[in-house]
Amino acid sequence: MKLQNLDRRVLYLLLAVTVSLPLVLRGLPLPAPAITPPTKSFYETIEMIAEDPAKKDKLVIVSCNFGSGTLAENLSQTEAVLTHLCRKKMKFAMFAFNDPQGRDLGKATAERISSQYGYEYGRDWVHWGFRPPAAIQSLLKAAVNDIPGALGTDIKGTKLSEIPVMRSVRTTSDIGLIVEMAATNTIAVWIQFFQRAGKEPIATLYCPTSVMANEAYPLLDSGQLQGMLVGLKGAGEYEKLIGVPGFATQASAALSYSHVLIIGLIVLGNAGMIAEKRRRKGAH
Questions:
Q1: When comparing pLDDT for 283 and 79, which is higher?
Q2: Neighbours of 111 (CB within 10 A)
Q3: Structural domain containing residue 6
């Protein structure tokens, strides 16, 4: 009977403690995430390109189309991806066209992580800035054959043709990889207008929020995407693969513990209901 009438505030308190502990106590044992196939393919694609003599020096586009509303998922993905790229000494270009916040969040993250690996802006990476979503289709069509001409300047107003890392970048043939971090379905723009516009398809990786991932699985199955990080869980799996545990690892543990708690409460609730039915039956 007591289980059936447990104060809901007690349940909320238990859930709050369960979620908070993995984020606060760094020494708490964390469950090792199982690496799912989309995350493994994501990791292996970057590893393969980094070791390919024909592709390792090509520019990687890191497109940050998210804002503060999906920070926990998309920023964790961005941090892990940039760490992997910098470790592999791959040059990259940040870009945003769906949310102006993505421009600033991507820039701040790239500055912080790239500096840890001795990267220098202009020499090893560049930020193409933000472009309005209404103009992105025509811009990418023009960029297929002339990236510096279509984009014009970087985030600082410098002509792309004058930036060292862009001097060998003219067309889509000079792009080795596209990585899209997204809060909406912006991956379709890359696939439709950019991915297959050159002499050979550009490998494309996707970092959506968890609620958007289901829509992308057909793209994985068709080969239009070579890998995907599914929300916070995917970011945690990726951190394990690159050996750099971060927020996603801690937060994934919080999710796991909270799921265990909820399952336990469901079991207790059903046990209480069964006990109550038996008590009533015995009373008759």
A1: 79
A2: 14
A3: 1-30+249-284
What's the Cα-to-Cα distance from 80 to each of 8, 23, 85, 241, 246, rounded to whole Å? 38, 18, 9, 10, 8
Q: Which residues pair with 227 in a beta bridge?
A: 205
pLDDT at residue 3 greater than cutoff 70? no
Residues 159 and 209 occupy one common structural domain = yes
Which stretch of 110-114, 149-153, 164-168, 280-284 has the lowest confidence by average pLDDT?
280-284
- CATH code, domain carrying 187: 3.40.50
Q: Tell me, what DSSP letter sits at residue 212?
A: G
237 & 259 share domain? no
Based on the domain organization, do 43 and 26 belong to the same domain?
no
Which residues lie closer than 8 Å to 43 by C-beta, 6 or more apart?
A: 84, 227, 238, 241, 242
Up-side HSE of residue 30: CA atoms within 13 Å toward CB?
25
One-letter amino acid at 216 equals A
Helix (H) or strand (E) segment spanning residue 11: helix 8-24
In terms of C-beta distances under 8 Å and separation of at least 24 residues, what long-range contacts does 3-6 make, across chains too? 3/268, 3/269, 3/271, 3/272, 3/275, 4/269, 4/272, 4/273, 4/276
Do 96 and 129 contact (CB within 8 A), yes or no? yes
Clarify whether residues 15 and 65 are in a common domain: no
Categorize the per-residue pLDDT at 30 as very low, low, confident or very high, splitting at 50, 70 and 90.
low
Number of folded domains that form the chain: 2
Same domain assignment for residues 224 and 254: no
Q: Which residues contact 268 (CB under 8 A, 6 or more apart)?
A: 3
* 67 and 170 share one domain: yes
